[in-house]
């Protein structure tokens, strides 16, 4: 009995005199708005806080800074770190057996981004320390953490003292250039709990002090990868494999009106993600919304499991808009032409109807079907005027008997290489007839040129449109006079060769 009592007393004395290590948990930085910072940037800020905790609360003074993996493993089933804030953090600290728990929160204050951090003692739920700061971007928030977090964590030490070893294990201050890569790439890197700004996305080249270091790589939708590496030479390769922790949403759409998966606007839990046929998601329940300029938007909830694939197959519903389509000749005369939508005839001009905004629209004139280049918007009526071109005509070339195809747009003339038979006649009459025909043909050609220029000029308002039509009518009259004059001159010239 006496021996058991002495043993109990000895054990009690041992427990009292042994300095127990205190555990500090730095929880993941959370954000009031997920669009303020990316997940990688929030992880980066969390790693900076852990770095400062390691510096101010060293192992030599019996402090232990819990890793991200330690915290996740210690959480009770169904419990999420993001579920509470304030004094509730102390309760979370108790759940993960931490003596102190700290967390930073990102928010918006006016046009600036705010950061606030709190440190709680879990036993008493007492707020031990806090700090606040503002910045315009993540780099500015990093400076706030560097300036305020040392004093923030020192509050947990109270009166604790001790000697902190700072030697370089015999390597001095020598540093080496290291090539860091991850599989897959794009991960943010930290070394010995210190985020590396020069390596926000792997692969990268960084300068590392000689010795043994702990490398940690963080990438969205993957487990954190880490390893202990001895750095002792330039050009040394450090490679870290990252284990996926995501599920895949496969989209199966029929783009009847055109477009592809890269044109989609996809949001998961309100945050826009890369447009793709395959969307990566963390395990859990997510709200997904998808939109496209040509199709009606859709949203749905999905439960995702790690390493699993889910397929969402949906018939996209085209968005419709109104179309008012008219056609007229170059002279302003209204024309009735067939209208085709996606190859199917839907009516005649003037046409007014509702069609999908991304439809292929055509009208058929004397030269065949012509595509209408018009941009339509949902819920709006789009107006468009189509100008009909003149029909293509064929003119014989007397030099070789071939046919010359001449698309007689306004301003173009008939080829002049058609030889005319010449016969003897009176010299004076020939000269006079030649001058008259030259003046007539010149007037005709000039009128054609001016009409073409006017037709190519796009009016910006109705007044300018009416003025353009008046000028075209005027040159049409002048062209007629030139044609008559030229014809008379040619007739006279021809008679001189006959008689």
Tell me how many strands there are: 29
Count of helical stretches = 7
**Portion of residues in helices?**
25-40%
CATH topology of the largest domain: Rossmann fold
Give the overall shape. elongated
Mean pLDDT: 79
Distance between the termini: 158 Å
CATH class of the largest domain: Alpha Beta
| Parts with pLDDT < 50 across at least 5 consecutive residues | 1-19, 159-172, 403-425
Computed CA radius of gyration, to the nearest angstrom: 41 Å
The CATH superfamily label of the largest domain reads TolB, N-terminal domain
Whole-number count of domains: 5
CATH architecture call of the largest domain: 3-Layer(aba) Sandwich
State the secondary-structure class.
Answer: alpha+beta
Polypeptide structure, described:
This protein is an alpha+beta fold and 499 residues long. The chain has five domains: 15-157, Rossmann fold (3-Layer(aba) Sandwich); 175-241, Sandwich (Immunoglobulin-like), CATH 2.60.40; 247-314, Immunoglobulin-like, CATH 2.60.40.1120; 320-387, Immunoglobulin-like (Sandwich), CATH 2.60.40; 421-498. Helices cover 27% and strands 35% of the residues. Strands 1, 2, 3, 4, 5 and 6 form a six-stranded mixed beta sheet that branches. A hairpin with a 2-residue loop joins strand 18 (284-292) and strand 19. Helix 6 (427-456) runs antiparallel to helix 7 (462-498). 25% of the residues are buried.
Topology of helices and strands:
Blueprint: H1 2-17, E1 22-26, E2 30-31, H2 39-56, E3 63-66, H3 68-74, H4 88-95, E4 100-109, E5 112-121, E6 126-135, H5 138-157, E7 175-183, E8 188-191, E9 194-195, E10 204-209, E11 211-218, E12 225-231, E13 236-241, E14 247-253, E15 265-268, E16 271-273, E17 278-281, E18 284-292, E19 295-304, E20 309-314, E21 320-328, E22 338-341, E23 344-348, E24 351-356, E25 361-365, E26 368-371, E27 381-387, E28 393-396, E29 403-406, H6 427-456, H7 462-498
Parallel strand pairs: 1-3, 1-4, 2-4, 7-13, 14-20, 21-27
Antiparallel strand pairs: 4-5, 5-6, 7-10, 8-9, 8-11, 11-12, 14-17, 15-16, 15-18, 18-19, 21-24, 22-23, 22-25, 25-26, 28-29
